[in-house]
Automatic annotation (TrEMBL):
Residues 10-107 form the Flagellar hook-associated protein 2 N-terminal domain. The keyword Coiled coil applies. This is Flagellar hook-associated protein 2. InterPro entries: Flagellin_hook_IN_motif, FliD, FliD_C, FliD_N. It comes from the Bacteria. Homopentamer. Keywords: Bacterial flagellum, Cell projection, Cilium, Coiled coil, Flagellum, Secreted. It is found in: Secreted; Bacterial flagellum. One of its GO terms (biological process) is cell adhesion. It holds the Pfam family Flagellin_IN. Residues 214-433 form the Flagellar hook-associated protein 2 C-terminal domain.
Length: 456
């Protein structure tokens, strides 16, 4: 930065004058750029708000776009302690009697007592789970109860046996083997052979005690006996999965499958609520107050007007070719403020009367949600209309930053020019003041008129 000393000759505050003159030149341009940037940032924020509201509405639209939404079933159990159920759209509405006689369970076996510090013996152990088996070599490194447990659990070819140890007291620990497979036929057995003494410690595992036998589930469905190797039964009632929880042969419960009308109504309500929120956002962004002259940031914006008009046309028009082709026919109408309202009596009646007709209105190939989703996609997609608008605004904001840089460059040049001019003037004033002082001095040295006369 140059060091300046102003006003030496003239006494003027040259630095102050230069700053004021440059500021006066900068201010109108700077204010214009600030106002322009503020307007663009306001529009950018407004487009973001609009896009968010449109996306929220699109989520609600997609919630009604899948025809399976309107085929949902609700499954209820009269005794959830014994069994529960779930169902798909393929389930037939109806009532089924369920009697759980026996739950499927996994085998669990327990050995005789061993001292946990005892070296049991060496040899081999073949463990079987159903028709699958694997063999372990037992040597001096793993011939304790803990060593055998760890060898079983670590075996890579173990088909699904988990080993653990329970202790009843000092010197009384037992190996417990549990299958991870339920159902009859998945029994656990051990065939052990001692290397040293036949009938020694290792062969004591050949006689395991049954803690729990492997067994199938037995359930009667509408009086029909069903056996399965799982407590989840999904191949008896079409579209229904039974979850067996407890057996009680003396108690028969009821499983009821119905159309899930509540979930469909909830989705319609969500759709209406999301649209009304969208209407509120669009009204706010495009509002105009005649009394104050205040206007929304997107008043008169063609993008907002375009999406608003297209959505309204879709909602008020006729779609599909089924029993219902308009929202009004199922009890959804537009009020005076442009929002949707629901006639609950009519909607409940329609849902109970004709589930498939509502599905056709919303989710058919030519249905309402297909039309709306297409409209919304054109605006909110990553390459959509609103993204194009916001990209354009961001580009213009970048141009303003460039204008500010150019303004700074011009102001620096202007400051240099002003400073040079005032400095030259200051030097000139100093020179003139010096000349004036010289002349005054010379004049003061001239003889006075009276003194000339006296000499004569």
């Amino acid at each position: 930065m140059a060091i300046t000393a102003g006003g030496i000759g003239s006494g003027l505050d040259i630095d102050g004058l230069v700053r004021q003159l440059v500021a006066a030149e900068r201010q109108p341009v700077s204010l214009r750029l600030d106002r322009k940037e503020a307007s663009l940032l306001g529009n950018l924020s407004a487009y973001g708000t609009l896009k968010s509201a449109l996306s929220t509405f699109q989520t609600a639209v997609k919630g009604l776009q899948n025809p399976d939404t309107f085929q949902a079933r609700r499954t209820s159990s009269s005794n959830t302690d014994l069994f529960t159920g779930t169902s798909t759209k393929d389930a037939v509405a109806g009532t089924y009697s369920i009697n759980v006689q026996q739950l499927a369970q996994a085998a669990k076996m327990r050995s005789d007592a061993f001292d946990p510090s005892e070296n049991i013996g060496t040899g081999s152990m073949t463990l079987s789970l159903g028709s699958d088996s694997f063999t372990l070599d037992i040597d001096s490194e793993n011939n304790t109860l803990e060593g055998i447990r760890d060898a079983i659990n670590a075996a890579s070819n173990n088909p699904g046996i988990t080993a653990s140890i329970i202790s009843a007291g000092p010197g009384d620990s037992r190996l417990v083997l549990t299958s991870n497979r339920v159902g009859e036929g998945n029994d656990i057995s051990i065939t052990a052979t001692d290397d040293d003494v036949p009938g020694g410690g290792l062969e004591r595992f050949n006689s395991l005690n049954t803690v729990q036998a492997a067994q199938d589930a037995i359930v009667f469905v509408d009086g029909l006996e069903v056996r399965r190797d799982s407590n989840t039964v999904s191949d008896v009632i079409q579209g229904v999965t039974l979850n067996l929880r407890k057996a009680d042969e003396n108690v028969t419960g009821t499983l009821t499958v119905t159309l899930d009308t509540a979930s469909v109504k909830t989705r319609v309500e969500t759709f209406v609520s999301a649209y009304n929120e969208l209407v509120g956002v669009m009204n706010q962004l495009s509002a105009f107050n005649a009394d104050t002259g205040d206007a929304g940031p997107l008043l008169g914006d063609s993008a907002l007007r375009g999406v608003q008009s297209q959505i309204r046309q879709a909602l008020s028009g006729s779609v599909g070719d089924g029993t219902f082709s308009t929202l009004a026919e199922i009890g959804v109408t537009t009020n005076s403020s442009g929002q949707l309202t629901i006639n609950n009596t009519r909607l409940d009646e329609v849902i109970a009367q004709d589930f498939s007709a509502i599905a056709n209105l919303f989710a058919s190939e030519n249905g309402l949600t297909k039309t709306l989703d297409g409209i919304l996609d054109r605006y909110v997609a990553s390459d959509g209309i609103l993204s194009s608008r916001t990209n354009g605004i961001q580009s213009r904001i970048g141009q303003i930053d460039n204008e500010r840089e150019r303004l700074d460059t011009r102001m620096e040049a202007l400051e240099s020019r002003y400073r040079a001019q005032f400095t030259a003037m200051d030097i000139l004033v100093g020179q003139l003041q010096g000349l004036s002082g010289y002349l005054e001095q010379q004049l003061s040295n001239l003889p006075q008129p009276n003194s000339i006369g006296r000499r004569r």
